[in-house]
Write a structure and sequence with these properties.
419 residues; two-stranded antiparallel ribbon; mainly alpha; globular; 6 strands
Amino acid sequence: MDLRESARAATDAIAERLASPQDVRALHHRQGWWPQSLAHGAVGVALLHIERARTDQGPWQRAHDWLACAAAQPAVAGSDSHLYYGAPALAFALHAAADRPGRYARALHTLDQHVTAAIHDRLVNAHTRMDRREMPALAEFDAIRGLSGMGALLLHRGLHTDLLQELLTYLVRLTEPVKHDGELLPGWWSHLSPSGKTSPEYPEGHANNAVAHGISGPLAVLSLAARRGVTVDGHLTAITRILAWLDDWQQESPTGPWWPYWITREQLRSSRPGPGPSRPSWCYGTAGIARAQQLAALALGNPQRQRAAENALLDAMTDPGQLAATTDVSLCHGFAGLAHITQRAATDALTLGLNGCLPRLLAPIIDTAPGTLADSLIGPPGGGDIGLLEGAAGTAVALHSFHTGTPSASGWDTCFLVN
C-alpha cells in the first residue's frame, strides 16, 4: 500500500470510530464532553466529517449528527467564547459545512450576531487597555482564545469586512512599541507568564513568539488578510515590524535557524535567549513560525524572505534531533501538524524538497495499523481526545488532506492560520 492509500486507510479507521456522538459520549474521555469545543469536542469531530463529505470520502449524515450534537444546547457567547469554543466555533463549523448557498443560513445569522458582538466588545476593551498603557493578556490577541483567532473566523466567513478591518487595525496597533518602566517593549509584551497567568518565574512578563499564543498568530492573520486584498493603514508596516522582531531573535544552530518560544525581560536586556532548538511544533515551534513568515513574505512579495522561511522549515523537518522531540501525532504539537504545515508550505514554495519530508513526518502515524492507531488515539474509557487540536479528529483530517493532495474543501485549516 502506498503512502496516500495508507493515509486514507488510517483516516477511514478513525472516522469509523468517531461515526456516532452517542457511541463516543459513552467513552467518558479525560477532556470531558464539551460539545461546543473545536479543540476537544463535537465541533472538531464535525469538521472531520464535513471535510470528508465535501470531498466525497464520507457521508453527510455523520457531519449533520455531530453538528446537531454540538448545537443541542444554546450557544456559549460573550467573553467565554472564542474561535475554539462556543458560538465562534459553531459558526466556523457551520460555514465549513455550507456547501451550497443558503445552507445553515438562519443558524449562521444568529451565530454571527453573537460573534460580531463579542469581537466588538473585545476590540473596545483592547483599545481601552492600550489607551491606559497597560500590557495585554495573551488571551486578548492570541490564535486560540483571542482576537487573532476571531480574525481567522472572519476570514473563513468572508463577511463582515468592516469588522475585519477594525480587527486588523487593532493588530496593527498591537505591534507598535510601548515604553514601560523606562524600557521600550513590543506592544504585545504581556505582564503574564506563558501559561497566561501571573507567575513569580516571570515577574516582568514576557514576549511570546508562537503562533498559538504569541505574535506569530497576528503575523499570520495580517498576512492572510493582505493576500486576500484586505488591508488597513499601517498594515504592511506592522508585518515588517513583527518580522524585524523575529529576525532579531532568530538563532542559528548546526541544523538550521530556530526561534525561542518566548523572551523574558532579562533575556531582552542580555540579548541572549534560552537553549534550543526545541520541539518544532505548530503551536510554538519553528514549523508554525516559519509558515507564518512564509505567508508574510508572500504578502510582501519578498522572494528572498520566502526562501529563508522555507529553508528554516526544511531544516527543522530534516533534523533528527528536533523530530525526536516530537512525541505525539496531534495537529497542535505532533507529527500531523508538522506534516500538514509542510504540505501547505510546499504548495506555495519556491524551495524544493519540502514534499520529500512528508514520508518521514507521516511514518510515526501511518506505520501503525489503522485499527491500532484509532484505538490509541480514541482510547478506552477515561483516555484519549476526540477533538481537532490535540485529538483524533485533527490527526485524521490532516491525513485526509495528505490523501487528497488538494487544498481543504471546507477551509478547516483556517483555524490554524496556515491557509
